[in-house]
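Regression test case RT-17, inverse folding.

Input:
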């Protein structure tokens, strides 16, 4: 699978000037941090990286500028189970999310126009935008799983038996129940 490596997007100063906004130092650094990242960072991750270059910046400034840059089309926002993430690649593309490590990869949008046209012709809808998400295991996680020998310790279910391992939310719920009994 070919990954997208080029970051497409409008020229920031021109796009902001056209909208009547300035490209301040904070905005430029925030935009640079998001565009340089392949990880689709959250606002908190952008804030951590921006603070290294601009120590007096506030989290509110980062949030406000991320939203404004997205509204001007210089970044895209994408909802995630962990919250809002930002993508510096504004070209048409799809995403692959690894369910093991959580990393998000940009992948080319194959046949985007044909799929949109087919949906429109079959349903009568006017397709304005589209977003396709793929979920699975990335190559690194697949290799790590294949290289790790599968061992069964005491108390672990045998093959074919349902897993008895508790989910993180189950652990938190049982802790809360214990605390409320005290």
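Golden output:
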């Amino acid at each position: 699978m070919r990954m997208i490596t080029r970051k497409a997007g409008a020229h920031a100063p021109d796009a902001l000037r056209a909208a009547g906004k300035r490209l301040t130092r904070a905005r430029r650094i925030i935009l640079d941090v998001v565009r340089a990242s392949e990880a689709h960072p959250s606002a908190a991750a952008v804030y951590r990286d921006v603070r290294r270059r601009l120590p007096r910046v506030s989290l509110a400034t980062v949030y406000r500028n991320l939203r404004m840059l997205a509204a001007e089309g210089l970044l895209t926002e994408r909802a995630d189970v962990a919250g809002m993430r930002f993508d510096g690649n504004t070209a048409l593309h799809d995403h692959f999310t690894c369910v093991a490590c959580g990393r998000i990869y940009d992948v080319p949008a194959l046949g985007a126009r044909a799929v949109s046209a087919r949906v429109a012709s079959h349903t009568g809808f006017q397709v304005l935008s589209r977003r396709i998400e793929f979920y699975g295991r990335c190559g690194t996680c697949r290799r790590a799983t294949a290289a790790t020998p599968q061992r069964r310790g005491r108390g672990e279910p045998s093959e074919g038996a349902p897993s008895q391992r508790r989910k993180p939310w189950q652990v938190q719920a049982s802790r809360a129940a214990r605390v409320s009994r005290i």
